[in-house]
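Limitations

Structures in this collection are predictions, not experimental determinations, and the ligand pose is part of the prediction. Treat each record accordingly. The example that follows, with beta-D-ribofuranose as the small molecule, is included so readers can see exactly what is and is not provided: the inputs are given verbatim, and the output is the predicted complex.
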Amino acid sequence: KRPIIMDCDPGHDDALAILLALASDKLDVKLITTSAGNQTPDKTLNNTLKLLSFIGVTDIEVAGGAPKPLVRDLIIAEDIHGETGIDGADLGEAKFAASNRSALDAMRDVLLNTKESVTIVATGPLTNVAILLNAYPEVKEKIECISLMGGACFGGNITPAAEFNIYVDPEAADIVFRSGVPIIMSGLDVTLKAQLFQEDIDRIRHIGNKTGQVMAGLLDFFNLSNTPHFLAEPGHVEGLHMHDPCAVAYLLDPTLFRGLDCYVEIETSGRLTTGCTVVDYNRVTGKPANAKVLFEIDRARFADMLHAAIKQFV
Ligand code: BDR
Ligand code: CA
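Predicted complex:
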């Protein structure tokens, strides 16, 4: 089993990314750390504990991360993920407590104490990962790669140029993309194609387990809040964008995806473009690639993968 650390900000699609990882016999989730992003840090931490409790997994360490981005104020996505950060279903109460160590300490210990190298899956702003790389650069050689959801080669979703996770903490993203650790970037180029349609959501609802019902409730809420207005034209059926599960799905089956090795830099001080992942798509800089940027996904197989994962739970 491939050891992984998940750093996330649940978040509807983060929740699904967690389920996808936990359902797989290919991945060993050693630790979950939470970032501030979709909601405030207390809420993303509590949502993670609630989700794990709901599916009866109470033996994974969950550690809370930095309260805010490295240098900026926190921006949250309450309009998309609701007041709780995971509106749309009742997960019940958390049945276990968060770790008494910080995300930073827990990440470092897992990296240094695991024999094999560990993959980090990051599906929120990159604050915690950047703090780790800065504080303990020696852990870099224990990181197999960072599979992250963030950025875009073409176009943003929080500004015309920036994707939410990178925009919230561009300084952190800059540290991560300069770190030398191999990066798999599931940006909007691919995640806007990773869609679930109404029939996929209904198929999840009717699996016959309570996880399927609750996830369908979450997806219904996300579906209403998430569809970009410009796509809401008559006759156009736009599915629900499953951003974060892409970062896990790539690890489970890279043949679902097509990507390009590219040199990527983060804009931290643009007049219009702060938080943009500047992807050297046309290879004009001559600089060596630091990320595999994903562009295409086999949507149908991806939807089947999510369905099969949710089926594994109670
Ligand atoms: C990203 O932003 C969040 O709202 C989602 O959870 C995802 O990680 C998409 O831009
Ligand atoms: Ca997220």
